[in-house]
């Protein structure tokens, strides 16, 4: 007799876990600096529109594939499209998550180190030497590899406990704390002298700042920030009960992600403007600029510690989904225990992440295609090529290959939406979403300009 498949214990547990998977580096780290470089409020408005038109339909699609099959990523496509090559969509997702987690965990390790240093105030004590501190951490193999190992170890522990006792329980604690800490930071940020300029920059759309490149950035961010494309949400929704509405759940996840992006902007831009900095600081915003700012404000050590902890929680809840899709793929046949595969997968991810981790130190002179470091080359391969390709294949699969009776049934279960909503979603997935993904992909590989 087949062992009963584990499921989420509640709708809120699924939504918080899915939101945790979506809310990570993209929403808190990448979104603010991309917004800063792309015109502020106008970019944020475009991001919301595109998230609802592109990201939400894709998220619904992954939920339908997962619950409709009741299988993890690889097995889902094999079950729904037997005797075809569509199983490679799931394999692409597992490979993409593996590569993504290998360098994502490096950044997670940096955050753990920064969080540890912030508690006794060591970061604040560093004064104006934040670039030196960051380069010292990233360029020292022992430190960066220790952070990488610790970050992966936390993932192994959580994933080994399973869906309900691992991911769901961790998300139920981490996500509320993340929101509470964010609100504390926003209150402090908007009450600074000069904060109004930052609020105005972030919320007042200036469409004269919008360029074709920033529109494509907003399009890309609309699905990058929802963890769609690598079938993570296929795996998560395979544990979902039939009495939960997929459109409603996806809608909740999307609006939580938009809300976190709003909080990120309100927490960061008022601070940046209050201290006379530029909103276009780029990726160094978190590890160099913000510590500098926090060191100059009352109770800066406390607020820096709060920010780093919430950032760590967001990074961890996202990484849970990346490791889960790998573990689920190798435990689907019940031959291997979850704990054993979690440990083995974590060790392999750690080993795979070593070259990228060392690309800021001993391997900094080693460059791959387009003169990129190992870290940047892996990021480029995953974010600019594999992720858009995964999104496109999912869009084609759910419209042109999956049984449309199953699609409609999963979309309609446990909700009272009119048939027009299903027709609208299907229209978006058939025409708008694939075209937009192709545009984003061509932009990412540099066809529309220099990236």
What's the arrangement of secondary structure elements?
Layout: H1 11-22, H2 25-37, H3 41-69, H4 73-80, H5 87-118, H6 122-125, H7 130-139, H8 141-160, H9 163-190, H10 195-203, H11 212-224, H12 232-237, H13 246-274, H14 289-294, H15 300-331, H16 338-357, H17 374-400, H18 404-412, H19 419-444
Explain what you see.
The protein is mostly helical and 451 residues long. The protein has one domain (11-49, 73-221, 249-378). It contains 19 helices and no strands. It has helices at 11-22, 25-37, 41-69, 73-80, 87-118, 122-125, 130-139, 141-160, 163-190, 195-203, 212-224, 232-237, 246-274, 289-294, 300-331, 338-357, 374-400, 404-412, 419-444. Helix 1 (11-22) packs across helix 13 and helix 11 packs across helix 19 (419-444). The protein is globular.
Largest sheet: none
Share in β-strands: under 5%
Which class of secondary structure composition applies to the elements? mainly alpha
Task: Note the total helix count.
Answer: 19
């Amino acid at each position: 007799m087949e062992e009963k498949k584990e499921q989420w214990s509640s709708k809120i547990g699924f939504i918080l876990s899915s939101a945790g998977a979506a809310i990570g580096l993209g929403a808190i780290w990448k979104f603010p600096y991309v917004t800063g470089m792309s015109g502020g409020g106008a970019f944020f408005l475009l991001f919301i529109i595109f998230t609802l038109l592109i990201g939400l339909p894709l998220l619904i699609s992954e939920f339908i594939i997962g619950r409709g099959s009741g299988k993890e990523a690889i097995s889902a496509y094999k079950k729904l499209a037997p005797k075809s090559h569509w199983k490679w969509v799931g394999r692409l997702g597992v490979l993409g998550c593996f590569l993504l987690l290998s360098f994502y965990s490096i950044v997670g390790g940096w955050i753990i180190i920064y969080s540890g240093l912030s508690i006794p105030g060591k970061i604040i004590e560093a004064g104006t030497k934040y670039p030196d501190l960051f380069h010292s951490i990233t360029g020292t193999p022992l430190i960066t590899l220790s952070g990488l190992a610790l970050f992966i170890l936390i993932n192994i522990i959580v994933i080994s406990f399973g869906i309900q006792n691992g991911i769901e329980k961790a998300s139920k604690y981490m996500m509320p704390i993340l929101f509470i800490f964010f609100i504390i930071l926003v209150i402090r940020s908007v009450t600074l002298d000069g904060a109004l300029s930052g609020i105005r920059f972030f919320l007042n759309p200036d469409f004269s700042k919008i360029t074709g490149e920033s529109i494509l950035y907003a399009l890309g961010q609309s699905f990058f920030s929802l963890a769609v494309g690598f079938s993570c949400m296929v795996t998560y929704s395979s544990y979902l009960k039939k009495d939960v509405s997929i459109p409603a759940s996806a809608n909740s996840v999307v609006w939580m992600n938009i809300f976190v992006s709003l909080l990120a902007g309100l927490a960061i831009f008022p601070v940046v403007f209050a201290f006379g900095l530029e909103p276009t600081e780029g990726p160094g915003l978190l590890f160099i600029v913000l510590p500098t700012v926090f060191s100059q404000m009352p109770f800066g050590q406390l607020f820096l510690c709060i920010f780093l902890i919430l950032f760590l929680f967001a990074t961890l809840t996202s990484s849970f989904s990346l490791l889960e899709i790998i573990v689920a793929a190798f435990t689907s046949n019940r031959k291997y225990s979850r704990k054993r595969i979690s440990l083995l997968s974590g060790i392999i991810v750690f080993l795979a992440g070593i070259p990228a981790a060392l690309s800021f130190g001993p391997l900094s002179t080693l460059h791959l295609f387009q003169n990129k470091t190992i870290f940047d080359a892996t990021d480029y391969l995953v974010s600019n090529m594999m992720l858009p390709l995964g999104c496109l294949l999912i869009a084609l699969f759910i419209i042109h290959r999956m049984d449309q009776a199953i699609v409609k049934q999963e979309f309609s279960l446990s909700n009272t939406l009119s048939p027009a909503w299903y027709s609208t979603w299907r229209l978006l997935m058939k025409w708008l979403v694939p075209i937009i993904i192709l545009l984003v992909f061509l932009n990412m590989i540099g066809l529309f300009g220099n990236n």
